[in-house]
Each structure stands twice: as structure tokens, then as C-alpha cells.
Amino acid sequence: MTDLSLPKNFLWGFATASYQIEGAATEGGRGPSIWDTFSSLPGKTANGATGAIACDSYHRTASDVALLKSYNASAYRFSISWSRIIPLGGRNDPINYEGIAYYRALITSLLKEGITPFVTLFHWDLPQELHDRYLGLLHKEEFAKDFERYARVCFESFPEVKNWITFNEPWCSAVLGYNTGLFAPGRCSDRSKSAEGDSTREHLVAGHSLLIAHARAVKLYRREFAGEDGMIGITLNGDWTEPWDPADPKDVEAAERKLEFAISWFADPVYFGRYPESMRKQLGDRLPPDHELEEVKGTNDFYGMNHYTCNYVRHKTTEPEEDDHLGNLETLFENKNGDCIGPETESVWLRPHPEGFRKLLVWLDKRYGHPIIFVTENGTSVKDESKKQTTEERTDDGLRCEYFKTYITAMARAMKEDNVDVRGYLAWSLMDNFEWAEGYTTRFGVTWVDYEDGQKRYPKKSSKVVGETIRALMENSKE
Ligand code: PNW
């Protein structure tokens, strides 16, 4: 590891999202979001969990900032709850100044401690009213106009923030919200799960609206707010892929196609102004037209990268299903030889494989012309962690420590060996929190949250490992 380093000004810290940590769902003038509604429906989340209380961070600004400080973090990524700022969400609806005051206090205390805020405008919690009015993401023009006005209110209210993220993981909003129906608003073709929805096309429409809204907010920011040092971008999730049988060109091709269906669906429009060829080929005119993407081209100041895992990919020999969102392929954790990609975690979709992080960084760097990259999420759950009983056990998260060490090292390697331009790293997550459909059973935090005892926080071993690993690399820097 001694030959690796990170620059002295490398930003690092932890990430969270509003609905996952804030709680106080009906306090301070906040309006309901689609996640309040969805999580209240029977059977949608594990044990019927909701974010009504979550980590109670709405009432704990001072202690959360103190926690970040105790971890020596130089950056913190959080998201703003749209319905706290504009409870009904729309461009002619009233602003809730109590909501603005809450985020202003948070930003002020971060800056006082020398912690750089990275602020996400939208981490899935759409105001419920916009869903009721015009089906939210399914109405491109209305959604883009309302999002642009919400973004304007945030840019005006928080001029100290210089690092903005428009959308978190549009793939999740689109596919999980409108194709599989596993996330809010839970629309899909399966009538046993949802009274409405069309899994063959709605996710493609939702994805398109997110791209247009992203572009409008970026242009607004650049025109009126960015000044010399403001930056704005979109955060995309992406897993690395390896062919199931590396000797079969069809598996090699399918592995690349999976990256395009997951990542390039959004990144190609942002960098090139068009959808990937492979998607157009399979989806035809169910995918909205490329000419509407003209305004999306060139709208990233940085690439926000969320990364967790890796899959083996095997091509399918049959025609694609109409509701397929993967690219007509299977994703697996074992390859043809029976090698397993990585150890089990609490999340069925997540297996640690740090080499995949290095490879994906290089892939993104090459395909998108050497962009500035901020890793805006990276982390893991730990199998059966929630079953741990004593504080000693609960804070001893060996697998997560190993995960952060190996992933951060893999990132440093991509920077040294392939000159990938990573400027910052935010671990997911500052603390255990509402893990969406998995409720509170799956934990991703470097801090244990005791939901049974007043949401008390207990630092886990991994909270130190992130900082120690990064600072050791920064000390190696010759700059
Ligand atoms: C990300 N999947 O979500 C989100 O940005 C976080 O809010 C979340 O807590 C974190 O990762 C851990 O899950 C994902 O099913 C959720 O593939 C699900 C998937 C991927 C990312």
C-alpha cells in the first residue's frame, strides 16, 4: 500500500439521506412524501417500518455534527426533503421557512466545524401532492418545472453550499419505483402489487423526466448561482460486471450491455446527449426520443458515483421480455467455474468485490472522457448484524472494516495506475438508518443506532477505519 497515495486536499466523510434519518415526518411544517405513503401500506417494507421517527436527526443536528467531527470527516453528504421546503411541492405552492431554517442550521454548524457539505436535492422522497396532481415523474414538463423552482429555492437559501447533487440514483427511482414496484410509488404491471402501472414503459418515462429536470436545474445553477467555485452533478448507481463465461463473446457483450442499461442509460445522455445504442435496439420507441436529450448534453460538473457490488452476467438466448430492465441477461454471484464473487452480506444484492470498484472507475473514466469523480456512496451491510445483543458485539463490524480498507485501496489504485480523477469519497452511511423496503433490519452505518433506546448512537470500529485508511494514504502524498 505504500506506493499508493491520496492528495492532501482529498475530501472524505460520510453520507445520509433525508427520509432515511430525519424522522419528524409531520413536524416543522413538512408535507408528506411518496415514501410516507408507500411505507405505510401493508407489506411494502420489512415489519411495516416507516421513516416517521428514523434516527430522529431532525432534532439532533448538534450531536450528528459532533459525531462527524469526532470521526475527523472533512465532508458530509445529506439530502434535502423537498416536502420540508415546499410541503405541496409545486412551483406556485407556499414555501415552509421552518424547513429552510432547519437545513440552514445544519449547514452553518457543518461549516463552523470545517466540514464541506455535499447536498442532494432529491433522494427519492417526492412530495405526495405532486404524485396526486400529475403522477410525479411520469409528467415530464410539470415535474421539470416544479423541480426547477424547488432547486431555485434551495440555491437561493443556501448560497454557502458549493457542491450540489440534483438526483440520487435515478435508476432506483425509475426501475424500483415504476418497473418492479419495490420502492415508492410502487407502480408496476403486477396487479397483485399495484392497482396501476405499466412495467413495460413507465420506468423509461420516469428516467427521461429525471434527466430533463436535472438539466434544467444544472443550467439554472450555472446561469445564476455557481459563481467561480460552485459545482453540480448527478449521482448514478452502478455495479461492476464480469462475464459468467469469459470465453463466450455473448457473455462478454452482455456484461457490457448490463453496464449500459444501468449506468449509460443516464450517463450517455448527460455526456453525449443520447441514449445507448444497446437500449435503443432492445426498447425501440418505448425509450423516449434522443432529440429531447439535446438540453441534457454537457450537464455534469462532476460524476457522482455510488458503488456497492459486482455481478457475473450471463446472456439469455430467448427474446427479451417486454418488462425487462436489465438488457436480456441474468445477474449471478457465481461464474461458470462456480467461483463466488464475494462473501454474503445482509443485503441480497450486495457482495463485496473491491476489484470491481477499481475496474468500474477506470471504465467510467474512459467512457466519459476523464470526468472529475466524487464517490458519493460506498459501503456494506453485514450479515445478521441486527441480531447482535451487546454493545461490544454491535460495534465490532469486522466485515465492514475490511470492506472499507479494500475498497478505498482499490480506489487509490485506480487513481495511481490509471490516472482516474477522484476528488472525494463519502462512505454510506454515517449511521444505521431506514433502509427503504428493508426497514431497520439491514444496517449500513459506521455508527450503531439503538432504535429501542431513544435512537442512541454508538460508533462502530469501521467509523475509525474509513478515516485511518484515507489519512494514511494522504500522508503518503508528495504534493
Ligand atoms: C442506495 N439495489 O440504494 C441508496 O442511495 C441509499 O439510500 C441506500 O441506503 C444504499 O444504497 C444502501 O442500499 C440502493 O437493490 C438500494 O440494487 C438498492 C439497490 C441499490 C442501491
From TrEMBL:
It comes from the Eukaryota. Transmembrane segments: none annotated. Keywords: Glycosidase, Hydrolase. GO terms for biological process: cellulose catabolic process. It catalyses: Hydrolysis of terminal, non-reducing beta-D-glucosyl residues with release of beta-D-glucose. PROSITE patterns: GLYCOSYL_HYDROL_F1_2. Its EC number is 3.2.1.21. It is an enzyme of class 3 (hydrolase). The keyword ATP-binding does not apply. GO terms for molecular function: cellobiose glucosidase activity. InterPro entries: GH, GH_1_N_CS, Glyco_hydro_1. Pfam families: Glyco_hydro_1. Plays an important role in cellulose degradation. Shows hydrolytic activity against several glycosidic compounds. Belongs to the glycosyl hydrolase 1 family. This is beta-glucosidase.
